[in-house]
């Protein structure tokens, strides 16, 4: 397994010591590997969210191009947004 030297802040080091003392991990390396896995998962989730956002933007632009939208006057914006948040049938 490759080895890397990393520098931690005092707070990060204290956290590692705490999780080791609590028996959550057997070694600092194990804790750091778990943190890297969590970072990888978070980045993958962020990428999925970004893809969904891009699809939503594309769908919105296409709806605008088709003329499929509702114009709302500034004075009525709050009421319109409230109506979108209301449960169906209310």
Automatic annotation (TrEMBL):
Indicate the family of this protein. Belongs to the ParD antitoxin family.
Q: Give the protein's recorded name.
A: Antitoxin ParD1/3/4
Gene3D superfamilies assigned to the protein according to its UniProt record, in alphabetical order: Antitoxin ParD1-like
Its lineage reads:
Bacteria, Pseudomonadati, Pseudomonadota, Alphaproteobacteria, Hyphomicrobiales
Which PANTHER family is this protein grouped with?
A: ANTITOXIN PARD
The record's SUPFAM superfamilies line, in alphabetical order, gives:
Ribbon-helix-helix
Sorted keywords for this record are: Toxin-antitoxin system
